[in-house]
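Review session, final week

We close the course with one last complete record, chosen because it touches almost every idea we covered. It is Molybdenum cofactor guanylyltransferase, a protein from Pseudomonas saudimassiliensis with 199 residues. Go through it on your own first, then we will talk.
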Amino acid sequence: MSGTPMSTSPPPSSILLLAGGRGQRMGGQDKGWVRWGEHALIEHVQRVARPLTDDLIISCNRNHQRYRPLADQMISDPGDDFPGPLIGIIEALGIARHPYLLILPCDAPRLDASILQHLQQHAGTRPVMLRQGSYWQPLFSLLPTAALPYLQQQWQAGQRSVQRALLGLEPIALDYPSDDPRLANFNELTLLAQTPAQD
């Protein structure tokens, strides 16, 4: 895998779980609370992330009281038009208590701690992003909080794509197989129904 670790003992990072989307492919449901087996999608991801940080941030636009027990901090989009995950990342960078922010989607319930730790081990001045083949995975990434002004400028200039915004910062790529099951996004009800749960 590409990229050279900056240190053997990574600096502490805040972790952002993104759960603020419309859930259009989930029939408009709040994706984080769609169940897979005995637990909701957000609970699977939170269970992996929780031991790795004392600053767990959840970005959501619905069901705030339901999410609150899972997080140390909560954020919501500044508007009510679901503008996408980039604004959630910007908001989280503004409140993160550590010099790095690890970004994860709420709909990847097969994530394991080794992937999160791999991202943390490469912490440095540039973002770190997973890549599968030629396809970047910007919602599996680690950002220095110092990237906030640049991303704010991108947003103000009309940028809404997380990938395009982060590529402007020349991220380090961590390459994973295209079929790695740990990175599967369960963003459609049919995928949930077809895949046995691993509680």
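Two points worth writing down before the exam:
Residues 48 and 113 are 6 Å apart (CA to CA).
Residues 85-95 form the longest helix (11 residues).
Good luck, everyone.
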